[in-house]
Design a protein that fits this description.
- About 40% of the residues lie in helices and about 20% in strands.
- The protein has helices at about 5-20, 25-35, 35-50, 115-130, 170-180, 185-195, 260, 265-270, 280-290, 290-315, 330-345, 345-350, 365-380, and strands at about 55-60, 70, 75-85, 90-95, 100-105, 135-145, 150, 155, 180-185, 205-210, 215-220, 225, 320-325, 355.
- Strand 10 and strand 11 (about 215-220) form a beta hairpin.
């Protein structure tokens, strides 16, 4: 039986679902809200007439009437998105109901502490809104952090590379610096959400892996990030693997996946072999130049990551695994992951499993955090 709702509540939920990307058509709205097709059409027509929604051309049909994509009407409201990395931050300005209109990157030093870094990224965002072409107003900002995040308290929990950050309400610092509502999320989770909605044909459940200097992953279940009981679901980087032995990890433990399968691990291992590398970018260059030692190590790193992902696939049975991050641009690394997944997972788990490269590149995390922010603003009635 359909749930009974007031008109305002139903239409607000429709806007939230469309803005977050979880619904794109009348059919998907009906499924998400458990409403009849006729009821959904009535509410959609009200939103179209009010100028809150626009309807695109008919898409390909999978049977029955061809669906028409619903989108939020572009407004003179903008959202700020911040992807905070270990040494730099990528900042985006997004027109609400449209897309990313401007980006910039600034250097940051995470060891400077939360207040200093947040002030710096807020200043970077202010630079984007100060351009003559910016006409509108900033209504919200979201930040993705390279560490475990408590999204409710908006704090960083036990980060290995962010000394001095725990205990700070990052959302409050960001709101004070920008004057608008803020959301805080882990970078891999934000990337996972961005990638989950980047395809015309969507699966219900997906896992996105971000393999760069470090390793992170995010899980999306029916269009929503799954955080787990402690908010750290998907943190495969600190899974113990036998190949790592007793190698110390940044988390304080020993033998973690990160010590044998990350960009930082490859830098360390190659330096031990006498190679003059200092960054993950140096490793990428060597592999692309077909350096035999670097290529073998990249393939081995992919195999280690693939072994851990086998356990994830066998347990979770996702419809897709999306591979992103700098290392995922290397063919030997990706091929090794793919081979391990097919060899080590039950055939029923891989029968319809999509293993694909990430599509959004550097925009994935920005896109994901904006989707979370847009949904949060709708819940606040903004």
């Amino acid at each position: 039986m359909s749930r009974r709702k007031s008109t305002a509540t139903t239409e607000d939920e429709m806007l939230m679902l469309i803005g977050s990307g979880r619904a794109r058509s009348r059919r998907e709205l009906a499924e998400a809200l458990d409403l009849s097709a006729s009821t959904v059409s009535q509410h959609v027509q009200v939103l179209l007439s009010a100028g809150r929604l626009v309807e695109g051309p008919a898409a390909e049909s999978s049977g029955g009437r061809r669906p028409r994509e619903l989108r939020l009407t572009a407004r003179d409201e903008y959202l700020g998105a911040i992807d905070l990395g270990g040494a730099h931050a990528r900042i985006g300005l997004v027109r609400r109901g449209a897309g990313i209109v401007a980006t910039n990157e600034i250097p940051v030093d995470l060891t400077a502490g939360a207040p200093t870094v947040i002030d710096a990224v807020a200043e970077g965002l202010a630079t984007l809104t100060a351009t003559p072409s910016f006409e509108g107003r900033l209504v919200g900002v979201g930040i993705a952090l390279p560490g475990p995040v408590d999204v409710t308290r908006r704090t960083v929990e036990s980060p290995s590379r962010m000394p001095g950050w725990p205990g700070h309400d990052i959302g409050d610092l960001l709101e004070q610096a920008t004057g608008v509502p803020a959301v805080v999320e882990n970078d891999a989770n934000a990337m996972a959400l961005g990638e989950h909605f980047a395809r015309t044909e969507r699966v219900d459940h997906s896992v996105t892996v971000k393999a760069g200097t470090a390793i992170g992953s995010g899980i999306v279940v029916r269009g929503t990030v799954y955080h787990g009981a402690g908010g750290v679901a998907g943190d495969i980087t600190h899974t113990r693997v036998s190949a790592a032995g007793e190698t110390p990890c940044s988390c304080g433990n020993h033998g973690c996946l990160e010590t044998v399968a990350s960009g930082a691990a490859l830098v360390r291992l190659l330096r031990e072999q006498g190679c003059d590398v200092r960054t993950t970018a140096d490793v990428l260059a060597l592999v692309r130049d077909a350096d035999p030692v670097a290529t073998t190590m990249a393939r081995t790193a992919g195999r280690h990551l693939g072994e851990v992902l086998c356990a994830v696939v066998n347990f979770f049975n996702p419809g897709a695994v999306y591979l992103g991050g700098a290392l995922a641009t290397l063919e030997p690394f990706v091929s090794a992951i793919r081979s391990q997944l097919y060899a080590g997972s039950h055939p029923m788990m891989t029968r319809s499993l999509a293993i694909e490269p990430a599509r959004l590149g550097a925009d994935a995390t920005l896109t994901g955090v904006v989707r979370m922010l847009d949904e949060s603003l709708f819940r606040l009635g903004r």
